[in-house]
Amino acid sequence: MSHQIIVNKLSFGTKGFDLVEKYQNGTILLIKNNSDIDNKINDLLLKLNNGDLKTLNISSNEVKKIKISQVLTKYKLKSISKIFVIGGGTIIDFSKRIRKEIEDNTKNQIELYVIPSRIGSGAESSWASIVNYSHEKNIKVNNRFLPSGVIYYTKLYRSLSHLDLLEGSIDAI
């Protein structure tokens, strides 16, 4: 008998951030690709915990070359309590590993919220993490890779071409 673990918090649009409880303690780590994001997302995250927000900009190409431990040396791990990820499948899957690494090092449970910038990869709803390194596709599965919630912030999809939307929709099906 097999089973599927699914994300239990899912929302759409600008009200999507309502699924995240406001809190006062802890830092939010925002992981995103190097492209600009809607400033409204940044403002909403700042309101969640009175401005304690750290941002990690990383490209899909950088993911192939760096180790998670190198990324995390800049941050006070014990203060991180939530991670938000904005990006496609590569950034999402790399961020899942960052979450697990922080949890393993601090023994704290970290909430992971994903805001997919593209549709169809499925990375936002799975407990697998697939990262392409220079000459290998590294696949790991862990129940801690499943996000705490997914926010489909539809304003991000307005810039996608019709072909990107079509391919993403077909991939999702």
Walk me through what this model shows:
This protein has 173 residues and is α/β, with parallel strands linked by helices. It is 28% helix and 25% strand. The strands form two sheets. The chain has a six-stranded parallel beta sheet with strand order 1-8-5-4-2-3, with helices on one face.
Strand-pairing-aware structural class: alpha/beta
The fraction of residues assigned to DSSP E strands is 25-35%
Q: Total number of helical segments?
A: 5
Helix-strand sequence: EEHEHHEHEEEEH
Could you tell me the mean pLDDT?
A: 79
Low-confidence stretches: none
Count of strand segments: 8
- Report how far the terminal alpha carbons are from each other: 24 Å
The helicity comes to 25-40%
Major sheet summary line: 6 strands, parallel
In one word, what is the shape? globular
Quaternary state of this entry equals single chain
- Which strand order spans the largest sheet, edge to edge or round the barrel? 1-8-5-4-2-3
Rg: 15 Å
